[in-house]
Amino acid sequence: MKTQKEKKVKKSQGVSSGLVIAGCAVLAILFFMFVAGNPSNFGDRNPQGHPLNFFGTLYKGGFIIPMVLTLLFTVIVLSVERSFALNRARGKNNLFKFVGNVKEKLEAGDIKGAHEMCDAQKGAVANILNAGLIRYEDVESITDKNNDEKSAIIQKEIEEATALELPSMEQNLPIIATISTLGTLFGLLGTVMGMIKSFAALATEGAPDSLKLSTGISEALMNTACGIATGALAIIAYNFFAAKVQNITNAVDEVGFAIGQTYTKKHLGK
Questions:
Q1: What does the pLDDT look like over 216-268, one tens digit per residue?
Q2: Is 7 within a domain?
Q3: Which of 28, 114, 174, 266 could be 66's S-S partner, Cβ–Cβ 3.0 to 4.6 Å?
Q4: Residue 60 belongs to domain spanning
Q5: 3 occurs within a structural domain
Q6: Per the confidence metrics, is the pTM higher than 0.85?
Q7: Is 11 domain-assigned?
Q8: Contact by Cβ (8 Å): 218, 210
Q9: How many folded domains does the chain comprise?
């Protein structure tokens, strides 16, 4: 039988956030240069001219735009990765139905049946519960502790198994949380730089340079829009996946408590 240490070594650590960010940075630069900067997006087919569509306006946002796009693409990729990872952690079947079935097996004293359900369910939750059930059987041979102490041992085993699984479920969520702030800040930086260019165009002698003025305003507005959109998406993604992780841990706590209660009831009076 595999030990918890062996499980920890073999546990998949998911996608590296560093590689994702590097890949998204390359994608953002290529998108900015060859899609947004395509001459067909501008009047007279000149990137220095007036933009004809959204991509042309995006290109006018300046060099901050690829940075914001890197953050935006990173949120999207990590959100997809977390979706798959948390679905694997929940297991093959509906998590709450699985929890209810395991509790029924425990109340009936069918530990073997609960084991079989965990083996069929798979995933992080099933691994945690299996660890608790194994400890449930192990404490039967302990003679120098009372039932409450044995129940506490089972609960501790579940907590330790949860501590092993939780980092893999929360992986990359801090990156998404950080981007929720960075996206807005980068957008604000681009906005300020665009407004500086606009005021510089207004400060010229005689009539203002209309091209520089429009370019500065476009840069400010596009950076504002992209920064807010990136920050908002990151906040939504973080809260969504954090809630999923919390639901999983709540399910584990519920069944873990049921395992301890089942042991105490079964050995009441012994």
A1: 787 888 899 999 999 999 999 999 999 999 988 888 888 778 777 777 777 65
A2: no
A3: 28
A4: 16-266
A5: no
A6: no
A7: no
A8: no
A9: 1
